[in-house]
Amino acid sequence: MSTLLLAFVLAASYYLYSKRNAGKHFPPGPKPFPILGNIFDLTTHELWVRITNWSRLYGDIMYIHVFGQGLVFCNTAEVATDLLDKKGSIYSDKPHLIMTGDLCGCENMVAMTRYGDKSRRQRRLMTQALSANACKNYRPLLANESLTLIRRMVSDPSKYLAYLRWYAGGLTLQSIYGYRADSPEDPFLMLGMDCVDILSNKIASGGGIWPVDLFPFLRHLPSWAPGAGFLRKAVVWKAKMEEFVDRPYELVKQRMREGTAVPCFVTTLLEDIRDGKEASEFDAQRDFDIRWTANSMYSASMDTTITVVSHFMLAMLTRPDVLAKAQSEMDTVVGSSRLPTFSDRASLPYLECVMSEVLRWGVPVPMGLPHRLMEDDVYNGQFIPAGTLVFANIWNMLRNEELYPNADAFIPERYLEKPPKHLNLSEAEEQEWAKERNPRNYVFGFGRRVCPGSHLIEESLWIVMATMIATLDLDWTRDERGKVIKQKITFDNAVFRTPSPFECDIRPRSEQALRLLNSVESSL
Predict the structure, then answer these.
(1) pLDDT, tens digit (0-9, with 9 covering 90-100), for 133-145
(2) Is residue 524 situated within a structural domain?
């Protein structure tokens, strides 16, 4: 009986989909199967590579569907800008995913919130805490935590990834909740890492679309029924996610009542309310918004930081000549008697190029996060139905050979180049050419859902890279004969392009560098 019912629902869905879209000219894409669509064309492993390969066949914009749920891939910056930026009023929604939102409890996270009053309130809170000027207040914390990270790495290079997770999670806990994680086994740190892993590798695997999102009646299955394993998982995952939303937030409120709270994102917003700057009294909606916005900041920053720093280390291991050149610039500008500070940034242009190339070469979130089209649209004569999920293929944009010749190679010098003379560009056009090549215009997303934490993430990444270049030498692990031990690097995260763990040798550049690491407290 259940098989017949499912067959009927599939047939009815296909009939309605076909009738609604009959005669419409969609963007090109691989041919779908009847009813099933392109479900067998998708993969949870490096989907961005498959989409990029398709782009060579189907062009700058592609369309596929899974059981009638449309997916559009913007394979160039021009298409992404035309749709997500210029038409942001209809392309800024987020999909209502039953599994992710209703069943797993993530519908109130900033990255998942539907476009409207709630999303605007949340983004205002994040902008208040994470604007370029506001991020300067975090600089002493960032500098000291980066120094602590590097000290730990030097003490035991084999645990670099554990220390990096400790740094990324601990830094975020401290800046958001004023909570210091004193060990890698800290309960809040472990809870946060569990939740980020659940979100990116379980809930959002395969693009985050589950059968229940396509066939909502499945949510009403008994939890013991065959095929209802997703319901049992959702119960566990939702409890874990809500625990991480509530526990650190309630701890901040308790510490504020006791007078022991450390200044942080949450205390700033709560004090504004208490002092009457934001509202005459603390209301439930405001409490709800701060609670979920704070948690969203943690979830967004942790994997991004781990991914980009890991790519930086890989780049320095792969291109030791780049590391040596960056170290030479550092020695000239900063010297060996102190550590770099944020005030040195403008005087270290090659390091800036290295950072830009790490963002481009590593591509931390290759497909971005999906936008949802709120009404039917037509782009260059091609029909895109309302409800379509739209992805920016950032991987393909940052592998554009016209903008980045030899795009698979790590070449920081490309950002020091002038435009080819045959282009005969004016000064204004040269500036536009340089802007087009800046990876920051792509890696943080497009439109009204661009990452609001980009300033803090960039500041954190810069001081880590600067301090590592100033104090460390990195090399691949070698055997007893001195030969490099070959390692295979894979990318298994469904959302973030995080490299698999690798073995490397991390040691101070010199005795003076070791003394700095052991004795200097960063100050700005």
Answers:
(1) 888 888 999 999 9
(2) no
